Amino acid sequence: MADKKAQLIIEGNAPVELPILTGTVGPDVIDVRGLGASGHFTFDPGFMATASCESKITYIDGDKGILLHRGYPIEQLAEQSDYLETCYLLLNGELPNAEQKAQFVSTVKNHTMVHEQLKTFFNGFRRDAHPMAVMCGVVGALSAFYHDSLDINNPQHREISAVRLVAKMPTLAAMVYKYSMGQPMMYPRNDLTYAENFLHMMFNTPCEIKPISPTLAKAMDRIFILHADHEQNASTSTVRLAGSSGANPFACIAAGIAALWGPAHGGANEAVLTMLDEIGDVSNIDTFIAKAKDKNDPFKLMGFGHRVYKNRDPRATVMKQTCDEVLGELGIKNDPQLELAMRLEEIALTDPYFIERSLYPNVDFYSGIILKAIGIPTSMFTVIFALARTVGWISHWKEMLSGPYKIGRPRQLYTGEPQRDIVELKDRK
Ligand code: SDX
């Protein structure tokens, strides 16, 4: 992996030789672990050009708009697999055969319930609390219930924690929604698929158990697949960093949920719908595009741009197709927000500002329109993202802990005061 070398010439220092490591695909990396001996650190705020780890889970080619999960293109997984198959793939490295899938589905089903006492945690929250605030709390609280599986050095404990998290996130997400609505929380059912079960727990009540629309269940499952994992994004890097200290998996996932909440990351799907409501009409698009381009205006076109994709986000393409399918199957014609979003995309992508900066719609641009069509309230959009991304987070956590790793501890460029002595209070000016 390291037959090439980079040479760093630092004035007044002997040249520093650094190994160059080559992966399966993608850019080579310069291994700077030996740089410290030269008395220098690398400096890369925001990790614009830093590989934080080695991984086999997901590969993104930002220039070509390619996203692979264990080598399989996201378009094929979205079209030819379901979310639990994708979970099995991310967690284990291969797609399951029929027997493995049946076993995995059954195992997940038998872990969908949460401890009855978890319900009491909700009562401490206001009913109008943001659902992500509640999710951070109740997912972190899971670590108080599973003392039998918190030894992160035990592969069986890592396995059962991963299954528990994948299985329980839909239950917790639906509980968060029911709590906000003041409705009774619904128990999961073992006769439903993963997506059907989630929609059942979200929208059914003890008074009436309606059958789940296959169209909506398929759309929900597709949304889960498209959000499952995405390499070393901010929330996944947060989970890896938390995990590197030996924190338990439930606490690490709660940290990932917190990082995802930001509008620059997973909070963008909720922000897109808010933005579309703010724009209101096609006639206002130019005003908002001008705001997005104005350096003195903090406004950004939500759902546009990406740190890695400098071409179309392949998930946005599949999401748009799903949008058309779902709205068509639901008989929703000329959805005003979809019309507005399509017009906004059209105008933005002819504007030199967006073209020069390769700002294309990302995964969050169309997802909200589908979620709204399914009946999910805007405030729950990022909870859905967290539900779906949990398998990605825990797969990276498992991968890191399955081999040698060190606690993540970046250094800094210090530009504060040099050493100085304290002056007694009475003598301070
Ligand atoms: C997700 O990392 C992942 O993989 C994340 C994710 C995943 O699956 O985990 O894909 C999910 O988080 C998708 C991104 C969702 N966020 C949004 O849609 C929010 C809007 N987008 C921006 O905030 C921004 O594009 C980011 C945060 C997504 C990326 O920011 P970068 O990589 O730091 O890029 P940047 O801010 O330096 O932008 C480069 C230029 C700047 O202009 P200049 O200083 O060069 O003149 O492009 C401009 C930015 O001002 N720009 C935008 C813009 N995004 C970037 N201008 C207007 N509107 C935008 N949306």
Architecture blueprint of SSEs:
Layout: E1 4-8, E2 16-21, E3 29-30, E4 58-61, E5 66-69, E6 72-73, H1 74-80, H2 83-92, H3 98-109, H4 119-122, H5 131-141, H6 155-181, H7 194-203, H8 214-226, H9 234-243, H10 249-260, H11 268-279, H12 285-293, H13 314-329, H14 336-348, H15 352-356, H16 363-374, H17 381-401
Helix pairs in contact: 2-17, 5-6, 5-10, 6-7, 6-17, 7-8, 8-13, 8-16, 8-17, 9-10, 9-17, 10-17, 11-16, 13-16
Bound molecules: s-citryldethia Coenzyme A.
Describe this entry's structure for a reader.
There is one protein chain. Helices cover 48% and strands 5% of the residues. It has helices at 74-80, 83-92, 98-109, 119-122, 131-141, 155-181, 194-203, 214-226, 234-243, 249-260, 268-279, 285-293, 314-329, 336-348, 352-356, 363-374, 381-401, and strands spanning 4-8, 16-21, 29-30, 58-61, 66-69, 72-73. The protein contains 17 helices and 6 strands. Helix 5 packs antiparallel against helix 10, helix 8 (214-226) packs antiparallel against helix 16 (363-374) and helix 13 (314-329) packs parallel to helix 16. It starts with a strand and ends in a 28-residue tail after the last helix. The strands form 2 sheets. The chain has a 3-stranded antiparallel beta sheet with strand order 1-2-3, with no helix packed on it. The protein has a 3-stranded antiparallel beta sheet with strand order 4-5-6. It is globular. Residues 230, 233, 264-266, 268, 292, 300-308, 357, 359, 362-364 line the site of s-citryldethia Coenzyme A.
